[in-house]
Amino acid sequence: MQVCCLIMGPAWLAIGIYLTLKHIVKAYGPQYSYIRPKYYTWLFIISDFGSLSLQAAGGGLASGAENKPDQMTLGNNLAIAGIVLQVVTLAVFAGLGGLYFSRRYKHQKIEPQPTDPQLQTKAFKFFLGALAIAFTTMFIRCVYRIPELSGGWSSELMMDEGLFIALDNVMVLTTMIELTVFHPGWCFPAMARPIMIGKRQILGVREAERVSQTGSKTEPDMITSGPMEKDKDSGNFGGPNSV
User: Fold this and answer.
1) How many other β-carbons are positioned within 10 Å of the β-carbon of residue 131?
2) Which helix (H) or strand (E) holds 163?
3) CA 169 to CA 205: how far, in whole Å?
4) Per residue in 147-160, pLDDT tens?
């Protein structure tokens, strides 16, 4: 169980990182992206679930392989394959993100476009910085796990507790702290899920919090009288804030 949790836990943090790119692209302008925003979510999460499945299967086989060297080897190889797939997924994520921002930067220099005010706030800039740090620490952790597992469960690298704490525990903890402290729910309102009744949006998350504190609604917070616009990328109702 310890091996499975150790292997599987960080994969869920990686999924949290992947989810942000779709909404960042939609906020900055999907016209600069090489693929439609919704495909970022599908591409990376499906790949990460494949990685998670391989690592879980490998960890399960390895943890129950006492006095069964062939099963231990198979479990180890599956876990390594899962980690390699996760590293490749993270690298592709970074590449597509870099291509998007590079393309947007070039177009903005030629033909500047107005920027959404919410993308100019300090909170959002902190969020982008935290996301970059979370990605970097997660990538370092995954790269470290490849040679660690490749040497076997009794290798010198696997037995180096100090290195394991520094390149696994600290990296995962840093990722978790960055994604929690600079949560997109308040740093990036475009990712906040609206409060819905049927196909009508009543209040966004931030507006609901403000109403609970003040006891009144301002004009932008009033109930939407008509049906919500259908999200062209996801096919769901709820406007651009829908996840």
Assistant:
1) 22
2) helix 161-164
3) 33
4) 988 877 777 888 88
Would you place residue 131 in the very low, low, confident or very high pLDDT band (cuts 50, 70, 90)?
A: very high
Q: Give the span between the Cα atoms of 177 and 175, in whole angstroms.
A: 6
Which residue has better confidence, 69 or 161?
161
pLDDT tens, residue by residue, 72-109: 888 888 888 988 999 999 999 999 999 999 998 888 77
How many angstroms separate the CA atoms of 62 and 57, rounded? 9
Q: Which residues are CB-contacts of 22 (< 8 A; sequence separation ≥ 6)?
A: 37, 38, 40, 41, 233
For CA atoms 127, 132, 136, 139, give the dihedral sign: positive
**154: burial class by Cβ within 10 Å (0-12, 13-18, 19+)?**
exposed
Is-contact 241 194, C-beta < 8 A? yes
Rounded Cα–Cα distance for residues 41 and 73 (Å): 33
pTM of this structure: 0.72
By residue count, the chain amounts to: 243
Q: Which residues are within 8 A (CB) of 196 and not within 5 positions of it... i.e. 6 or more apart?
A: 202, 228, 237, 238
